[in-house]
Amino acid sequence: MTDPTETGAAGAGAEGHVEAVLGRDGLEALVSVLRRRGRTVVGPTVRDGAIVLDELDSAGALPWGWGVELEAGRYRLRRREDGAAFAHSAGPQSWKSFLHPERVRQWTADREPDGGMTVREDRPRGVAYAFLGVRPCDLRAIRVLDRVMIGGRHRDPAYRSRRTGAFLVAVECTEPGATCFCVSMGSGPAADAGYDLALTEVLDGEGHRFLCRSGSPEGAEVLVELPRRTADAPTRTAAADAVRDAADRMGRSMPPVDLRTLMRDNLEAERWDDVTARCLSCGNCTMVCPTCFCTTTEDVTDLTGDHAERWRRWDSCYDLDFSLLGGGPVRASPRSRYRQWLTHKLGTWHDQFGSSGCVGCGRCIVWCPTGIDLTEEAHALREEAAREEGRK
After folding, report:
1. Interval 113-147: pLDDT, tens
2. What is the crossing angle of helices 24-36 and 217-224, to 10°?
3. What are the boundaries of each domain within the chain?
4. Measuring CA to CA, which residue among 222, 308, 245, 283 is closest to residue 1?
5. pTM of this structure
6. Is 321 exposed, middle or buried (0-12, 13-18, 19+ CB in 10 A)?
7. How confident is the model over 145-171, as a mean pLDDT?
């Protein structure tokens, strides 16, 4: 398993490196071995017209032969002829749903017959997860969440209990979607670090197979338990070519500028008015984003008042109450709230956590009901800045 506090230590060159080729039987065995080791295996599967993340009891539940068609505000499943298991782009969920769940109870309180009160803290229960099918962009997102949730002074024990010991099986991207831009953010399509095992799916005249390499000692232990054959040069070449080709077929890109500077220097750009005329302030982009982490608390009680609970739940900077103070909300307009989200994600996140908050997965583009595209907005801000500079 990878250590979340040392995210750079588990790359492809880590101690215990093993490389092999797996067939479909190897993938079946992988799920069995991980379950036998006491892990809850979570991976992609088809449900309700989408590829979602759910607990897997076998590799047969993977989305074999399914792909997706993506565009701004649009997501559709489509059948593939090649039977690939991982030829799909990011779905509506990310691994955040398991590591940093939408709702977590923090404590309960009960009134006693003598008038006293008993308060019981809900201590986080560790879950031995195995995540199968983690895309490189999502692998980066987990590392970003690690820095936010357990990498600083304010650590989240609930997150740490789920993250510590999680076994990560990355799958390199060979089929980018129309809304993907991981190359612009330096987060894919190749898996570079933070995994226990990395798979690259290969389909060619030599058959359907997976190049598998370990990135941690436990990953190497698991790999040697699987039915496998020695990694051969043609498979290595085919895998490398498929990943390289994916990098050349990204559907979106960010402007080739310093995004931190672009956001900082254009806070009063007219483009903010244009985009927020379309924004519903629904918060979909923050809900599907694999790195957005904000939460609030809510207290609930029964009708008698004898039992109460406090819950932590996801919150969104698009909510009017998110910045509510005594005199009213700090960000009362949709313009101010959208600008806060984008400038934080691409700019001031660096100041807080040392990296961008965006990994280029494109989920916010797909699941925006009005099709707002943050890459389009970044390009528009750059073009407006260039026009303004030309007038000087």
Report:
1. 988 999 999 987 778 999 999 999 999 999 999 99
2. 120
3. 19-247, 259-391
4. 222
5. 0.91
6. exposed
7. 92
